[in-house]
Amino acid sequence: MVSCFGCPVLGSVKVYVPPGTGTISNFTTVPGMVSTNGESEFAVFCATPAPHIPSATAQGSRMPIANRRDGSRDERSGRALMVFRLNLLVTSLLLLWTGSVYSTLRPAARLHRYQYSQMAMGVQVTLTVYAPDQATAERACAAAFERIAEIEQIASDYRPDSELMRLCAQAGGPPIRVSEELFTLLHRAQQLARRTEGAFDVTVGPYVQLWRRARRTGQFPTEQELQEARARVGYEKVVLDERERTVQLLVPGMRLDLGGIAKGYALDEALCVLQQHGVHHALLEAGGDIVAGLAPPGVAGWRIRVENAAPERQWVYLARGAISSSGDTEQYVEYDG
User: Fold this and answer.
1) Is the dihedral of CA 139, 141, 142, 147 positive or negative?
2) At the top level of CATH, which class does the domain 158-258 belong to?
3) Could you please report the per-residue DSSP string of 60-88?
4) What is the pLDDT of residue 293?
5) Spans of all domains in the chain
6) Distance between CA 209 and CA 267 in Å, rounded?
7) CATH assignment of 26-45+107-152+263-324?
8) Do residues 144 and 273 touch, judged by C-beta distance below 8 A?
9) What pTM did the predictor assign?
10) Which residues of the chain have pLDDT under 50?
């Protein structure tokens, strides 16, 4: 068998997982995280045959060993010298190229599958990673969860002391200087709002509060409540100043909800943290938001099932990308039967 680089493959992709889909090999608990671990193995071996170095005395060539007595060089010897130098150059380049190919295809370390879960941003966040050992996986995932917690403290609308809620408490007042991270989120949200002409709008917080109450108590919003909420909603009521990094909410009672953008941002940041710790094969999930790093070793992508989708669209294979879904499978309100 020959690889795409033209060199023979001595080994092949080998994948090991415990018997049965989803089977775990052990169970680990660390503070704030639950782990279910399995393992896999991936190795690719590639070797390039030793390049042929043309002999200087091969048939049809002759080494230039002497000049003629009259001072002129043998014409055939000159041509042989040129050919020899050219062959030597090509051989040297080939050796360098072979070394670079082999360095990229050298045997990968044996990787094990680890999975950790933690409540964050109002949902269960699950990190599934492949790492060389448990210590590496726990260290990387703990740091990733810390990064998610940092963003939650900035962007959560569930926490009254979050930076976002402190900003909303100043609605109707003067511009408020905010952190660079919160400003980045709001700036991106406003860009999306303008591009979608308000279909995406983080000022929908007053509506969200009414429907959260309806889900919790079964009390449907009245028409008056909906009208009052409508007066406090609209992305055009948010003023951003990039130079001063300030945000002004123009109408009293406005409430921002970053649920449509903050979870994806938090998962992107968490993936960066995993990669900084040397963990590149990872899948991060928070509710309907999923972010993927490299695929599991030996396969093309992470296999993801989309609940309640059409049969031909239920399975998605994802690597180095993201996917988000939304629906009434888990959060819904029944009214009048």
Assistant:
1) positive
2) mainly alpha
3) T------B-TTSPBPHHHHHHHHHHHHHH
4) 98
5) 26-45+107-152+263-324, 158-258
6) 25
7) 3.10.520.10
8) yes
9) 0.67
10) 1-72, 100-107
